[in-house]
Amino acid sequence: MDFLFNTNVQFFIAAYLVGGIPFGLLLAKKFAGVDIKSSGSGSIGATNVLRVVKESNPVLAKKLGAATLALDALKGVLVLAVAYFFGVSEATLWGISVLAVIGHCFSPYLNFEGGKGVATGMGVMMFMLPVETIIALMVWAVGAKVIRISSLSSLTALAALIAASFVLHPEMAHAPVVLIGFILFYKHIPNIIRLIKGEEKRVV
């Protein structure tokens, strides 16, 4: 058990446990009295919080959706910031980034189920690759405004981020970026199927 006293291992565990906190589920239950796991898409992310709570309280839905988005993005950044302060290596920071996303998508508090990972992924990417993430957010904003399909906007932004990382940082090891991209893509497979069938709902 000596490995548990290793600083890197401690940060990896923290990243997974903090990343797994289902803020959307907790906020919706606390302030709206609804279980988003059994409503809408069943996701714990901001989009489903907005969609489900909006049915009964549109004003509250926007507030809880925004809070969920912010908290999901910040939970990975929090561990990264502390680890950076302790002077860990860049490889360790990338490990923390990946585990924070895994924690959100496969939460230890929800029988290893979770959300799509977009907000948490964008949060850690903003810390690690800020320019690429800004590009991705611009792509997402355009998609959200024009397409108004959350999953398609997110996947397009993800593709833009990965492509930008190869263009702007061709020298870096891209495995963590690609791995996070793969996880997010995997979690969106049901959405992709609905997109192909023309059944994916628009955000209104």
Automatic annotation (TrEMBL):
It is a multi-pass membrane protein. It is an enzyme of class 2 (transferase). InterPro entries: G3P_acylTferase_PlsY. GO terms for molecular function: acyl-phosphate glycerol-3-phosphate acyltransferase activity. It catalyses: an acyl phosphate + sn-glycerol 3-phosphate = a 1-acyl-sn-glycero-3-phosphate + phosphate. Pathway: Lipid metabolism; phospholipid metabolism. It is found in: Cell membrane. One of its GO terms (biological process) is phospholipid biosynthetic process. Keywords: Acyltransferase, Cell membrane, Lipid biosynthesis, Lipid metabolism, Membrane, Phospholipid biosynthesis, Phospholipid metabolism, Transferase, Transmembrane, Transmembrane helix. One of its GO terms (cellular component) is plasma membrane. It comes from the Bacteria. The chain crosses the membrane at residues 12-28, 124-143, 155-186. Its EC number is 2.3.1.275. Its main location: membrane. HAMAP family: PlsY. Catalyzes the transfer of an acyl group from acyl-phosphate (acyl-PO(4)) to glycerol-3-phosphate (G3P) to form lysophosphatidic acid (LPA). This enzyme utilizes acyl-phosphate as fatty acyl donor, but not acyl-CoA or acyl-ACP. Belongs to the PlsY family. Probably interacts with PlsX. This is Glycerol-3-phosphate acyltransferase. It comes from Candidatus Sulfurimonas baltica. The gene is plsY.
